[in-house]
Design a protein that fits this description.
The chain has about 180 residues and is of the alpha/beta class. The protein contains seven helices and seven strands. About 30% of the residues are buried.
Length: about 180
């Protein structure tokens, strides 16, 4: 694994997994939330995001986590040699996003953009989770179904599968 995409809906644990996998592999970790969001939740333009994304995926090795603009996902997948898709029931995404929002009052979430407080945007975040579930999720599934041979695809559908992935790939255990 030299180029790893971790993708999924909000509240799935993408940032935490990326950091753990980065520690284990030594690969540099890039959080798309830090690319797309400026302080006070000001999104960069799609063109600016596209340029930053292109710069990241052109590098020799990386772990890139997040969704970003949908227009960049196919290119990211095409350049990946491993894709981890966190695709849980929407209730899990909601619950974990709410817990993260409350916890963020005390501890800044890993991978979160500077100057962006998750609790302040919790209601819009829940709407985004719904949108991704309804719109982006089918698109992601279709892209995964068309991956070229040799790409390691890990479609994790439950917190239990995430825990097993974490134990095997991040901690080196085969339980």
């Amino acid at each position: 694994m030299n180029k790893v995409t971790i993708i999924g809906n909000g509240g799935a644990g993408k940032s935490t997994l990326a950091l753990a996998l980065g520690r284990r592999t030594g690969l540099p970790v890039h959080h798309l939330d830090q690319v797309i969001w400026q302080p006070d939740w000001q999104a960069v333009s799609e063109e600016a995001f596209q340029q930053a994304h292109d710069d990241l995926v052109a590098r020799e090795s990386w772990i890139i986590e997040g969704v970003g603009y949908d227009s960049t996902i196919a290119d990211r997948f095409a350049r990946s040699d491993a894709i981890v898709y966190l695709d849980f029931p929407i209730a899990v995404h909601y619950w974990w996003a709410i817990k993260r929002g409350v916890k963020s009052v005390f501890v800044r979430p890993a991978g979160w953009a500077e100057g962006c407080q998750p609790l302040a945007k919790l209601i819009p975040m829940l709407r985004i989770i719904w949108h991704i579930h309804r719109t982006t999720r089918p698109y992601l599934r279709s892209l995964l179904a068309r991956q070229k041979p040799g790409v390691s695809v890990h479609h994790l559908r439950s917190p239990r599968e995430l825990k097993q992935f974490y134990q095997f790939y991040c901690q080196g255990r085969s339980e």
